[in-house]
Amino acid sequence: MADVVTHLNELNTSMQGTGMNTVTAREKLSACIRKLPVWIKFEKRNVTNFPFLEEIVVSENEGMTIATEVTKHLQQLSDSFQRYFSTGDLDVAKKWILDPFLFNLDSINDSDLMKDDLIELPANGQIQMEFETMKLENFWCAQLAPFPQLAKTALEILV
Q: 41-90, pLDDT tens digit by residue?
């Protein structure tokens, strides 16, 4: 269980600090949830993700007993994560928030007023340089004056 707690502590630490936003936190949590089914399959003697367990398991019988118990705990952890955390993907039409310069505009309805701004924004080289050097939240704060509707929508989702 020390290995599992280590993984959870790493997740917890990675989701703290400045520059963390709901989108990034959701991505990290979603990645952890997707790892759990892989970890559960370690009954087949693949304990790569569990270095402490690998040191302890000496005999085949002992390994299978421990594997059964750990599998049960991992399944409960997976069920709990699914129940407590909603990590659905960011709506395709909102992915422009993460990178407005590589975003496919075809996923946005032509009647959406923000589409014009999303066409105009990448045309500005200075704004693209800002995007590459600033944290995501700071970038969208800087866009409040030139693109108020885009910036407001982006910040509502990020914060």
A: 765 566 677 777 666 665 555 556 777 777 788 888 888 887 777 655 55
Sign of CA dihedral 87, 89, 91, 97: positive
Rg (CA), the chain: 21
pTM of the model: 0.56
Give CA separation, 52 vs 3, 84, 94, 138, in Å: 6, 28, 41, 41
Q: Tokens at residue 56, please?
A: 């302890």
Residue 105 DSSP class:
G
Interatomic CA distance for residues 12 and 25, integer angstroms: 10
Which among 44, 53, 65 is positioned nearest to 6, based on CA atoms? 53
